[in-house]
Design goal:
Layout (H helix, E strand, L loop, with lengths): L1 E7 L5 E11 L4 E4 L5 E2 L5 H18 L2
Antiparallel strand pairs: 1-2, 2-3, 2-4
């Protein structure tokens, strides 16, 4: 399972946090895969464009 979070830090810039999780049957829960995480180095206008595109696609799929 993957998880990605985008956070608008201004009207046009975004930072992101991402990670990958794997189910652990012995613990009956998901655990983060070592080395899978990622965080933006700095707020980015390009990530802002990607985030708005993602949001518009989700809204179009959900609100039809």
């Amino acid at each position: 399972m993957t998880q990605g979070i985008c956070k608008h830090v201004s009207a046009t810039t975004v930072v992101h946090v991402a990670s990958v999780h794997q189910y652990s049957a012995s613990n009956k829960t998901y655990k983060t895969v070592a080395g899978s995480g990622g965080v933006s180095e700095a707020p980015s206008a390009l990530e802002g464009i990607y985030a708005w595109g993602w949001a518009r696609n989700i809204w179009a799929d959900s609100l039809l």
